[in-house]
Write a structure and sequence with these properties.
CATH topology: Zincin-like
Number of helices: 4
Number of strands: 3
Distance between the termini: 27 Å
CATH class: Alpha Beta
CATH architecture: 2-Layer Sandwich
Strand order of the largest sheet: 1-3-2
Helix content: 40-55%
Strand content: 5-15%
Bound molecules: zinc ion
Shape: globular
Order of helices and strands: HEEEHHH
Structural class: mainly alpha
């Protein structure tokens, strides 16, 4: 999956296209993805430590996460980030809805083993 594929998917899932996506071909120790509010930019760090690109389901999971931030900032009327809370309940609802759509409604989102390993190690 390349940057254009991922962008197309995000637009299809959300119906929103007033953002930019950068699938950066580097590994980041600190981030999988970032959202730059003022630039409306979603940046995904595409590579794993060993230099290979993450599987598509990880990229989709991270990109929909950052997209959920964009949606809250620009598309939820009246929404304001509360001090100290980066991810509120609504954030998870939006992310889940995007994920459900990406991976199929009524089907539990199945992460590949590598995702489960990484998710577990990040808790
Ligand atoms: Zn976040």
């Amino acid at each position: 999956m390349n940057q254009q594929d991922l962008m197309d998917l995000l637009v299809e899932l959300s119906g929103i296209s007033d953002f930019q996506l950068e699938l950066k071909q580097t590994y980041s120790k600190c981030y999988w993805g970032r959202y730059f509010i003022n630039r409306k930019l979603i940046r995904i760090y595409a590579l794993d430590e060993d230099g290979t690109q993450f599987p598509d389901d990880i990229l989709i999971r991270e990109a929909t996460h950052e997209l959920a931030h964009h949606i809250q900032f620009y598309h939820v009327p009246g929404w304001e980030r509360q001090k100290g809370i980066v991810h509120d309940e609504q954030f998870y609802e939006i992310h889940k809805a995007l994920m459900d759509k990406a991976f199929g409604r009524n089907v539990p989102v199945k992460y590949s083993p590598i995702v489960e390993r990484i998710v577990a190690s990040r808790k």
